[in-house]
C-alpha cells in the first residue's frame, strides 16, 4: 500500500533559521500519526509544507500521491487542516463558517452535510452563535467541523486539544478514532504523552530534526532508551520527593524522575533493585517496592533529546 | 478558473451584514464629502478684502471706489494714506488687493488721457489674484472712451458657477478614495487575523478569491454612486445632460478599476497599517494630478504622464463630459478604453501578486 503522506529529506529555512533539517517520514492510510515536539521544533512548519502553504527549501513531500509543491492545488480537496491558532471568521456564526467552507469545497448536498457535522460535534445549541463568542473547546470543535466537512481522506490537526478541558479532549479523541476507523488518515501534533500513546505511530521532532519514529511500543523497546544491562525501576511507597533527592547523584543511579507518587529511576549495570531499597532505608527513607517498570513515551523522548544534544 | 467565487462572495456579504457600519460609511462619506466640499470649493471669489489709497480724493474717485464695491468682488476694508501703509496691509494679508487712485485721476476728463489706477494684487493666492485681475480688466475696458465690445459667452456652464465645474470631478475623486480603501484591507485583513492560514488550504482559486472580494463592494459602490449623483442634481443643481445608461455603465467600469487598485494595494501590504499608508499615498495625487483641482494641460510632462496611471484622471474627464457637456459614449471612448484596460490590468496584477502560500 502506498503511503498517504510522505516527506523525504525536507529542509525548511526562514532566513538563517533552519526550521526543518532533513525530515523524512511516511504515514500509512487510515492510521493515526502523532507528531510530538516542543514549541518551535518545526511541527507546524511540517504540516504547512504538507498542506502546500509553505514550500520546502529542499527535499520533497507527497500527499495522497500528489507532490505538495507542484500539485498543491490538486491535493486541496483531499485534505482537511485544523490550524493551531483559531483561523475561522470570528464575526460569522457557527453555521455561516460551515456554510462558507461547504461552498469553498463544493460539498455535495451541503445543507444536510452541515446539519450532520453540527450534530456530530454537539454544536446544535451554538448554531447561530458567532465564533468569537465560543469558548476554547467549542471553537476547536467548530474548527474541526470546518476541516472535516468535505470528508477529506487526510486530516491534519495541529495541536487540536491545546487548552481545552479533559472531557472535551476525550470527546475529541473518540471522534478521531471514529474517523480513523472509517478510513481517514490523521496527522496530529500534540504535547500530551497520553495522546501520543493513542496513536498508531509516533514521531518526535526536536530542533527541526526527527529523532524517533515508530509505534509507541517499538519506541519504548528501543535499545537507546534503556541502554544495555541498565534497568528501569519504579520505586513505590515512600516520600517521592525525598527519595528523588536522595537518589540524585547516588552511586549506580543513572537517572531519577518523580512520577506522581512514584520515583522512576534508571539503574546502572549490576545495580540490583534491592540495593536501592537498602540504600534508601539506610537514609531513613523506607520504601515498599522497587519493581521493574517499562519506559514511558516521555522517557523515550527525554532520552532521545539528551542523546541528540550530545 | 473562478472556483470559490461564490463562497467568498457569500462570506464577504455576511461580513458586511455583520458590520452594517461599513455600508453606511461607504455611502454616507461620499455624500457628506461631496456636500461639504462642493460648497467649499468655490473659485468664484467674492468680497475680496481690498485696501484703498485714494490720492485723488475727488468725487469721481469716490464713485470709482463704490463702482468697485458694487461688483460684489471687492470689499473695502482699509482706507490708507500712504503707499507704505497700503503695502503693509497687503503684507499682513488684511487686504488681498490694493487700489491706488493716482493724484491726477480726475484731471483730464477731456484730454483723451485715461484716468490712472494702479491695482496691487496678492500673488500668494493665485485664485484670488486671478479673479481680481479679471474683474479689474473688465472694469477698465468699460471705463474707456472707446470701450471694446467684448461679450464673452461661457458654454456648458452659462452662469459660470464653479460648483458645476467642480462637483462631478469631486464625485469621481471621492469615489476612488472610498472604493480603493474598501478593498485595500481585503487580503491583508485575512493575513493579520490569521484566517488566511485556513483560506490558502481550500480549493478556492486566486481569481475566485479576488473577484469574490471585489463584487460585494462593487454593489455598495453602485448604491453610493446613485446617492451621490442624486445629491449632485438635487443639492448642486448640476444637470446630467448625457445619457444615463452611458453614465451608469462607465460608473461600473470605474468602480471595478478603483476596487482593483485597492486589491493590488492589499496584496502589496503586509499589515493593515501599510495598506492605510499606501492608500493615503494614492489619495493626494488623485486629488492634485487627476485634473480635478488643476488643469492637467499646464502640468510638466512627467507629472502629466503620471496622471494617466490614476483611474480618477479618466473618470473626472468622463464625468465632466457626460454630465456637463452631454458627451456620448463614443465621445468619451478615448477615456473609457484606458480606464477599462487599467482596471483589467490591476485586477490581473492583484491575482498574480496573491500567492496561496504563507511565505
Structural commentary:
The complex is a heterodimer of chains A (310) and B (359). Chain A has helices spanning 43-51, 72-75, 94-104, 110-120, 136-148, 166-181, 193-197, 216-220, 240-247, 273-282, 297-309; strands at 5-14, 17-27, 32-36, 58-63, 66-67, 79-82, 154-158, 185-190, 201-206, 209-214, 231-236, 253-259, 262-267, 289-292. With 310 residues, chain A is of the alpha/beta class. Chain A has eleven helices and 14 strands. Chain A folds into two domains: 5-220, P-loop containing nucleotide triphosphate hydrolases (Rossmann fold); 231-294, Alpha-Beta Plaits. The mean pLDDT of chain A is 92. In chain A, helix 3 crosses helix 4. Chain B has 359 residues and is an alpha/beta fold. Chain B has two domains: 5-41 and 161-353, no CATH class; 48-143, abc type-2 transporter like fold (3-Layer(aba) Sandwich), CATH 3.40.1710. In chain B, helix 3 links the parallel strand 1 (48-54) and strand 2 (74-80). The radius of gyration of chain B is 27 Å and the shape is elongated. The A-B interface holds A 14, 48, 51-55, 72-73, 76-77, 79, 81, 83, 85-92, 96, 99-101, 103-106, 130, 146 and B 3-4, 6-8, 10-11, 14-15, 18-19, 193-198, 200-204, 356-359.
Q: How many H/I helices of chain B?
A: 14
- Gross morphology of chain A is elongated
| Largest interface (CB < 8 Å) | A-B, 32 and 26 residues
Distance between the termini of chain A: 37 Å
What's the mean pLDDT score of chain A?
92
- Shape label of chain B: elongated
Which structural class best describes the helix and strand composition of chain B? alpha/beta
Outline the biggest β-sheet of chain A: 6 strands, mixed
What topology, given as strand order, has the largest sheet of chain A? 6-7-8-3-9-10
Rg on CA atoms of chain A, Å:
23 Å
**Element-by-element helix/strand order of chain B:** HHEHEHEEHHHHHHHHHH
How many strands appear in the DSSP assignment of chain B? 4
Amino acid at each position: 500500500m502506498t503511503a498517504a503522506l510522505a516527506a523525504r529529506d525536507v529542509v525548511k529555512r526562514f532566513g538563517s533559521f533552519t526550521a526543518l533539517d532533513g525530515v523524512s517520514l511516511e504515514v500509512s492510510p487510515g492510521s493515526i500519526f502523532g507528531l510530538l515536539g516542543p514549541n518551535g521544533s518545526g511541527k507546524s512548519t511540517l504540516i504547512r509544507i504538507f498542506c502546500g502553504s509553505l514550500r520546502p527549501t529542499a527535499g520533497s513531500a507527497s500527499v495522497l500521491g500528489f507532490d505538495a509543491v507542484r500539485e498543491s492545488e490538486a491535493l486541496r480537496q483531499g485534505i482537511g487542516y485544523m490550524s493551531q491558532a483559531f483561523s475561522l471568521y470570528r464575526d460569522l456564526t457557527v453555521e455561516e463558517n460551515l456554510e462558507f467552507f461547504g461552498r469553498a469545497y463544493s460539498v455535495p448536498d451541503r445543507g444536510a452535510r452541515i446539519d450532520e457535522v453540527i450534530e456530530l460535534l454537539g454544536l446544535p445549541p451554538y448554531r447561530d452563535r458567532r465564533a468569537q463568542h465560543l469558548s476554547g473547546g467549542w471553537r476547536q470543535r467548530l474548527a474541526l467541523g470546518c476541516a472535516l466537512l468535505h470528508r477529506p481522506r487526510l486530516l491534519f490537526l495541529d495541536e487540536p486539544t491545546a487548552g481545552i478541558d479533559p472531557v472535551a479532549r476525550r470527546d475529541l479523541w473518540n471522534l478521531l478514532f471514529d474517523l480513523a476507523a472509517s478510513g481517514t488518515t490523521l496527522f496530529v501534533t500534540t504535547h500530551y504523552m497520553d495522546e501520543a500513546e493513542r496513536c498508531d505511530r509516533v514521531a518526535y521532532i526536536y530542533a527541526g530534526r526527527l529523532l524517533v519514529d515508530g509505534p509507541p511500543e517499538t519506541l519504548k523497546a528501543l535499545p537507546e532508551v534503556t541502554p544495555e544491562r541498565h534497568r528501569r525501576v519504579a520505586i513505590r511507597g515512600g516520600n517521592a520527593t525525598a527519595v528523588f533527592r536522595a537518589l540524585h547523584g547516588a552511586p549506580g543511579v543513572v537517572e531519577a524522575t518523580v512520577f506522581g507518587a512514584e520515583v522512576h529511576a534508571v539503574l546502572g549495570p549490576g545495580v540490583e533493585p534491592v540495593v536501592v531499597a537498602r540504600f534508601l532505608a539506610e537514609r531513613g527513607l523506607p520504601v515498599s517496592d522497587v519493581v521493574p517498570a517499562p519506559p514511558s513515551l516521555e522517557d523515550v523522548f527525554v532520552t532521545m533529546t539528551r542523546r541528540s544534544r550530545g | 478558473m473562478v472556483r470559490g467565487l461564490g463562497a467568498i462572495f457569500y462570506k464577504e456579504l455576511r461580513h458586511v451584514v455583520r458590520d452594517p457600519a461599513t455600508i453606511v460609511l461607504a455611502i454616507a462619506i461620499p455624500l457628506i464629502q461631496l456636500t461639504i466640499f462642493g460648497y467649499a470649493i468655490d473659485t468664484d471669489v467674492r468680497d475680496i478684502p481690498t485696501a484703498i489709497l485714494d490720492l485723488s480724493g475727488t468725487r469721481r474717485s469716490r464713485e470709482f471706489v463704490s463702482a468697485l464695491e458694487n461688483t460684489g468682488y471687492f470689499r473695502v476694508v482699509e482706507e490708507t494714506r500712504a503707499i507704505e501703509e497700503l503695502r503693509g496691509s497687503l503684507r499682513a494679508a488684511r487686504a488681498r488687493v490694493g487700489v491706488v487712485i493716482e493724484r491726477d485721476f480726475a484731471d483730464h476728463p477731456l484730454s483723451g488721457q485715461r484716468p490712472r489706477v494702479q491695482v496691487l494684487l496678492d500673488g500668494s493666492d493665485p485664485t484670488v489674484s486671478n479673479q481680481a485681475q479679471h474683474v479689474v480688466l473688465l472694469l477698465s475696458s468699460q471705463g474707456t472712451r472707446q470701450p471694446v465690445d467684448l461679450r464673452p459667452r461661457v458654454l456648458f456652464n452659462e452662469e459660470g458657477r464653479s460648483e458645476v465645474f467642480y462637483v462631478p470631478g469631486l464625485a469621481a475623486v471621492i469615489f476612488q478614495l472610498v472604493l480603493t480603501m474598501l478593498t485595500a484591507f481585503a487580503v491583508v485583513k485575512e493575513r493579520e487575523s490569521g484566517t488566511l492560514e485556513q483560506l490558502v488550504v481550500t480549493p478556492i482559486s486566486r481569481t475566485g478569491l479576488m473577484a469574490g472580494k471585489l463584487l460585494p463592494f462593487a454593489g455598495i459602490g453602485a448604491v453610493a454612486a446613485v446617492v451621490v449623483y442624486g445629491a449632485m442634481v438635487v443639492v448642486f443643481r448640476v444637470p446630467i445632460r448625457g445619457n444615463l445608461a452611458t453614465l451608469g455603465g462607465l460608473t461600473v467600469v470605474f468602480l471595478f478599476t478603483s476596487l482593483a487598485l485597492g486589491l493590488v494595494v492589499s496584496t502589496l501590504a503586509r499589515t493593515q497599517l501599510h495598506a492605510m499608508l499606501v492608500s493615503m499615498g494614492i489619495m493626494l495625487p488623485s486629488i492634485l494630478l487627476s485634473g480635478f483641482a488643476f488643469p492637467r494641460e499646464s502640468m510638466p510632462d512627467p507629472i502629466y504622464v503620471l496622471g494617466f496611471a490614476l483611474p480618477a484622471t479618466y473618470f473626472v474627464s468622463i464625468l465632466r463630459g457626460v454630465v456637463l457637456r452631454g458627451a456620448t459614449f463614443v465621445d468619451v471612448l478615448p477615456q473609457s478604453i484606458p480606464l477599462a484596460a487599467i482596471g483589467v490590468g490591476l485586477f490581473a496584477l492583484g491575482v498574480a501578486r496573491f500567492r496561496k502560500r504563507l511565505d
